[in-house]
Amino acid sequence: MDSWTWGVIVAIVVAAAAVLGVAVWLLLRLVRTRRDLQRAGLPTGPKWIFWGAVLYLVLPTDVLPDPVYLDDIGVLLLALKSMRSGRQDALAAERGDGTGTALRG
Question: Which InterPro entries match (predicted)?
Fold first, then answer.
């Protein structure tokens, strides 16, 4: 193989490693957020959101093949956003100011 081919292969491997690193970083952030919310006594949202996001990252069956972790990153970001919005709703309800995003009836 010529040097151009090796350069492309190295670039693809570096890009895949960087995307995997972002996915692992988001997973760690999701776990820390859930743990911090539990320690503070705040709701963490449905458990299936957390465990579904973790399983989607770990299991090899994905929308996109596993070397492309963009869909996994999206799922982790949605789970993190869901957990944070649940925290904001709980804090707003605790204050009683009604600024949360949850519908009240």
Answer: DUF1232
Residue 82 neighbours by CB distance under 10 Å: 16
| R_g of the chain, CA atoms, integer Å | 19
- Show the CA angle centred on residue 28, arms to residues 21 and 63, nearest 5°: 60
Q: What is the DSSP secondary-structure string of 25-52?
A: HHHHHHHHHHHHHHHTT-----HHHHHH
Q: What are the Cα distances from residue 13, in Å, to 19, 49, 63, 85?
A: 10, 31, 20, 35
Q: What is the model's pTM?
A: 0.67
Q: For residue 75, what are the CA distances in angstroms to 11, 40, 51, 91, 105? A: 25, 25, 11, 25, 30
Q: Report the mean per-residue pLDDT for the chain.
A: 80
Q: What is the identity of the amino acid at 58? A: V
